[in-house]
Amino acid sequence: MGEPTQNRRALDVLIVEDDDDSRDMLSELTALYGHRAVGAATAQAAIESAERCLPNLAFIDIGLSDADGFEVAKRLRAVPGGERVRLVALTGYSDTASRARAESAGFDDFVVKPLMPEKLSELLASCE
How far is CA 111 from CA 6, 16, 39, 59, 91, in A? Predict the structure, then answer.
């Protein structure tokens, strides 16, 4: 695992994941790297959170209960300033169609679960 963030700008990270354990683990890892994590279990909670405090980076599960992650990405992009948020699709699907759909929905990155700590560190560092 990479070194925790020191003397760098702390990021606001939105974690949109309907699995409580996955969301909590990703939030804790993000905090270990010195960043602020806000979790959302639903698409609606994610949009409301982004409207209150626009994140620098958002990890979005594609398979949510109330809307899919593609819709969340489109809605986040529509929030004022949303074009500046780095969006990362989190999914169990690695097929070409899912990747293409993620790109057309506005995602910047596509990560197949599980998100490994090294990849998390890389994505966080790319936003600092």
Answer: 25, 14, 18, 9, 7
